[in-house]
Predict the 3D structure of the following.
Amino acid sequence: MTRRTPDQLRVLMTQMLQASGTPSDLAAFVGASLVDANLTGHDSHGVIRILAYLAQVRSGALDPVARAEVVNESGATILIDGRWGWGQPAMHLATTEAIRLAREFGLGLATVERCYHIGRVAPYVEQVAAAKMVGIAMANAGAAVAPFGARSRVMGTNPFAWSVPRADGHEPVTLDVATAFIAEGKLRVARAKGLPAPPGAVVNADGLPSDDPNDFYNGGALMAFGAHKGSGMSLFAQLMGRGLAGQTPEQLAGHGGGNGPVIIAIDPERLRPLTDFLGAVEDQVDAVHAAMPAEGISEVLLPGEPEIAERARRERDGIEVADPIWESLVAEAAVWGVVVG
C-alpha cells in the first residue's frame, strides 16, 4: 500500500487534470471531489477514477474545457446542459439551482443532460441538507446490471441518495448507495487488489454466479441488491435519467462513465416550522441510536456515520492507495508530463 495525505492527492489530481487541458478552477473542483470520496472510504469513486476520466479526454468523448450552463427553466424545474464536460461541476450547478428553486417554490428539481460522471452522489444531497432542506438524487449510467430474473446487462449501477438535515452542530443523515449489489468502481478496486467479488454480486457471460471480478469485464453482469426490490429502484433511476436527463444507453455508451442525474430539493419549512421538523429528526435519530444492538454489533449507527468516522481517520492518518492503482496513477501522470513526488 502507498499512503499519501489528502493534500498530496488533491495536488496530484489537480495537476493531472490541468495537464489534460482542464481550466484550473474546474481541475481543483474535480480533483477535490475524487479525494473526498477516498476520505469517506469510498475508494471506488476516488483517485482511481481519474484513469478512466483521462482516457475519455484522450478519446474526445469528454471536453475538459466545457462548462455546464442552464438551458431551460420552467416553474420549479430546471435543465442544465453539461456539454459533455466534467460532471461534478455540472451537478454542483444543478444542486445550487435546485436549492434556489426550492426557496422560491418549496420544491426544486434539476437535471443535467449531456453529463459525464458526477462522482459520489452524497456531496450533492448533503449540499441540499446544509441549506436545511431535504435532498434526493439519483442517476442512470451505462448498462452493467441485469434486471431481476435476467442475466444480461440492461440498467446501470444507478446510484440513489438522500440527505436530511439535523439540528445545528450535527452532520445530516445521508444515504448514498448503488442500486447494484456492488458499485462497478468497487469491483474495479477489488480486481486491482486481487480480491474476489462478494457472493451474489456478479454473473459471468453464461449467467452463472461468480466471485471473479474479471467475469464482469469479460461479458458478465452485476446483479441488483435486494433482488426485485433493488432492481425496481434501479429501474426507477433508469427511467428518470433516461426520461428527464435524456441520457439514453446509446449516449452513455458513447461517453463511457456518463450519468443522467436528477436532484430534488424540498424545503420542509413550507409544511411546518423548521424547528419542529428538526426536532422530529432528532427524536428519530435518538430512537435509532438507543435501539438494542444485534449480537456482534457494538453500536447502532445512522446512514452516513461510518463515512464521518472514516473521514476523521483518513484526515489524520492519510489515504492508502493499493500499489497496483498507485503504479497506474504514476504511469498516467507521466503520460501527461506530471512528475509524482
About this structure: The longest strand covers residues 134-141. Residues 230 and 291 are 26 Å apart (CA to CA). The chain has a mean pLDDT of 95. The chain has two domains: 2-62+316-335, 69-180+224-270.
